[in-house]
Amino acid sequence: MEIRQASERIERFVSEIRKVIVGQNEIIKNTVTALCAGGNVLLEGVPGLGKTLLVRTLARCLGVNYSRIQFTPDLMPSDIIGTNIIVELSDGTKRFEFHKGPLFTNLLLADEINRTTPKTQSALLEAMQERAVTAFGKRYELESPFFVMATENPIEMEGTYPLPEAQLDRFIMKLFLSRPSVTELESIIDKRDPQPELAASKVLERSDLLELQNTARQILIPEAVRNYASRLIDATHPDSADAPDLVKKYVKFGSSPRGAQALVACAKVNALIEGRPNVGFDDIRAVANPCLRHRVLLSFEAAPDNVTADKIVNTLLESVMKTSKKVEEAARK
Question: Domain range holding 287?
Answer without folding.
Answer: 219-332
